[in-house]
Amino acid sequence: MLEFFQSLFSFTFVIRALIVGTLVSLCAALLGVSLVLKRYSMIGDGLSHVSFGALSIAVALNWAPLPVSIPVVVLAAFFLLRLSESSKIKGDAAIALISSSSLAIGVIATSLSTGMNSDMFSYMFGSILAMSSSDVYISVILSGIVLVLYGIFYNKIFAVTFDESFAKATGVRAGLYNMLLAFLTAITIVIGMRLMGALLISSLIIFPALSSMRVCKSFKGVILLSAIVAVVCFFLGIVASFGLSTPTGASIVIVNLIVLFLLGGAGWLKEKIKKRQPLS
Length: 280
Fold this sequence. Notes:
Blueprint: H1 2-8, H2 12-37, H3 43-60, H4 65-85, H5 91-112, H6 118-125, H7 133-152, H8 154-162, H9 164-169, H10 174-196, H11 203-213, H12 219-244, H13 248-276
């Protein structure tokens, strides 16, 4: 076992993946709680497809992928938020509209340029080898910005998550903080897509939050447990991927799925024990 971990940490690309993945998992877990409670959880899926489209166009034009995709995905997040709030197109339809259109644009851009090579395959399904040194620096800086902004505006995000109407009545600019939530989500999606891929990145947002809600009832408790679950599942997924030679993104998702079942069972057992206790 010791030799296995020594071998694992001897590779530079593994260290890069662990640094970036831990930060992205933490960001996604924190944001995911609010997104799941507001029923915006699939916004991650839609934005990941937008990111894939932007990355495909950047690769086709020989541009740097991250600097191109970040502003595009942020604008898409704001547009998607506005579109879902309109009376004509609701959230799920808006996400499906943006998601399918962006994916189609990305596939066409890829087919007309490089074709489905290993780089584009890693954008779709993730790759532990995909992180370069410059990607790591950019990802660490952006993850730090996401965590700092989330910490500063935690109380406002909490308010618009649980009762947006009441928050508006008390003077909170709910629209502004919804846009902040969309902005932070867009940044997290872009920096995490190299590891998880466009088709799996939304799992980092959804799974830890759902797992934590099985056993915790308070918002703060769900936030803390979600962060722990996300980081632990990411690490175990990397270890499983390295040991079993399986795709990184898929391995992390499977670990999250197992934890969801385990915590779901723990939550069910907790409720059973609570119901059997006599009333005092």
